[in-house]
Amino acid sequence: MTTVHLVDTDVNNLLSICNALEMAGADLRICRTPAELDDAERIVLPGVGAYRDCIGGLRNGGFVPILNNLVLEKRLPIIGICVGMQMMARRSLEMGEYEGLGWFEADVVRLTPVSSDGSPLRVPQIGWNSTSYRAGEPLFAGLPPEPDLYYVHSYHLQCDDAADVAATCEYGMAVTASVRKGNIAATQFHPEKSQDFGLRILENFLRWKP
Amino acid sequence: MLKRRLIPKLQMKSSRFGGQMVLVTTVQFDKVIEVGDPISQAKIYQAQAADELVFLDLDATPQNRKPMAEVIRKAAEEIFMPITIGGGVTTVEDFRVMQQNGADKVSINTAAVENPRLITDASERFGAQCVVVSIDFRQDADGTYYVWTRGGKQKTALNPVVWAAECERLGAGEILLTSIDRDGTRGGLDVEITRRVAESVSIPVIAAGGCGVAMDFVDGFLQGKADAVSAGTFFCFQDQNPMQTRAHINNAGIPIRLHT
User: What are A's interface residues with B at a Cβ cutoff of 8 A?
Assistant: First the structure.
C-alpha cells in the first residue's frame, strides 16, 4: 500500500475522493493540520466549490508554508484535483481576485466557450468530455487515446507556458484538463468521478516516481 | 467533445414493510410500485457505465424529514460517478450534510419555490455546480404549463420556462425538468417544453418523465435540446440498459459516451 496524505481544509466534500483513493490502493492519511503533513511522501490536494473558500481554508489553516516546502523543496509527488488544481495557479479571477500558491504561471479564468455556429456554450461545463493528453504523461499511462473523463467547472487554468499543459479537452475552446511540471500534477476533471479511467489515473499517481 | 448524458433516476420511498428505503417507480407521481433495493440497482448502473445517478427521496417532503443520507453514503463507497440527491432539502446545512455523505449535487424543488433565496445561498456556499433545481410541471386542460411542488400535489402560479430562467439568475447550476403528466407513462418526453426551457437558460437542462423507447432519448437531445436525459421506469422495468440505449443514441449521431 502506498501512503498518501490528503489535505483537508474542512471546506471540501472528501468522501468520494477518499473512497476512490482507497479503491486505488492508497493508505490514506487525512491531514487537518499542517503538522500532520510532516512525514508525507505523496500528497493529494482536493478542492470543490468556491475558490475563495478553498484557498482561504488553506491559508487560514497554515498549510501554505509546509506545502511549499514539501512540493518545491522536497519535490514530493502531488496531485491537485479541480479547485485543488486551480489553487496551484498564481491567481484566480473567480468572483474577485485571489492569490494562489503560484506553482504554475497561470491565471484561473472563466470559461468562454463558443460553439461552431458562434453561439455561446453552457457554463459550467458539466459532463464527460474526451481528453487529449501529451504522450508519456505518467498519470495517463495505460489509458486509451482520448478517454472520456468527468468535468464540472466554470473556470480553468490559462497557462503562460504551454509546456505546463499535460492534457486538454475541447469545449468550444481548448480547456486545460491537466497540468504537470516536474513533481506537480493536477487535473481539472474529477478522477474520483470518472469510473474505470479515473481510478486508473489515481493508481498511476500512487505509482508515480517523478 | 462534451457528451450528452444518460442519467438513471432512483426514486426511493420508505418501504411499507419494515421502513427501509426501497426503490420505486411511479406513474404521474402516483401509483407507486416497489421494485427493489436502491444500492443494488445503483451498482448495476455503475457496471453499465451510466453517466451519473440521481437519487430522489419521495417521502422526505411529505413526511417533513431530511433526505436519507445513509443511502448516498453507502452508494458513494463503491460508485465512482457523479451523484445527485434530492427530496426534503430545505437549508444550506442540508446541502452540507448531503455533500459530506458523498453527494456531488443536491437537488431542490419545493424549497426552491418556497424560499428562492436558498438557491443563491447554496450556490454562493458550494458553487453553482452543486445546485440543481428540480422543476416538476403539468399541463392544464387549456394547454398552459404550470410548475407544481410538494411531489406534484401543490400547483403554483409559476410558468416552468420563466421559473427556470429565474433559477439560473438566482445561481442554479443545472435544471432537472420533469413532466408529471408523462412520468412513468413511457409515452415520450415533453420535447416542446424541454426545448423552450433549454433555449431560455444557459445552464444544462436534464429532461425527465416519459421515456419508453430509446428513440425518446434521441428526441429529447435533438428536438428538446436537452444536455442530459434522466429516466427511472425505463431502466427499471425494461430489458433496456444504459449501454444499449447509448448505442441507439450514438447511431442517431449524438455525441454520447460509449462504454469505457
Answer: 13, 15-16, 19-20, 23, 48-50, 53, 120, 122-130, 147-148, 150-154, 169-171, 190, 192-199
Are B129 and A126 inside 8 Å of each other by CB? yes
Average pLDDT along chain B: 92
If you average pLDDT over residues A71-99, what whole number do you get?
A: 97
Helix (H, G, I), strand (E, B) or coil at A102: coil
User: What Rg value do the Cα atoms of chain A yield, rounded?
Assistant: 16
**A94 and A133 in contact (C-beta within 8 Å)?**
no
Name the grid cell of B174.
443545472
Whether residues B51 and A127 touch (CB distance < 8 A) is answered with: yes
- Residue closest to B22 by CA, chosen among B178, B236, B204: B236
ipTM score: 0.89
CA nearest neighbour of B74 among B28, B38, B24, B20: B38
CATH entry 3.40.50.880 includes domain A2-207: yes
Is-catalytic flag, B183? no
pLDDT tier at B65, thresholds 50, 70, 90 = confident
Interchain proximity A152–B49, CB inside 8 Å: no
Q: What is the mean pLDDT of residues B148-165?
A: 97
Instruction: Tell me the domains of chain B and their CATH numbers.
Output: 5-251 (3.20.20.70)
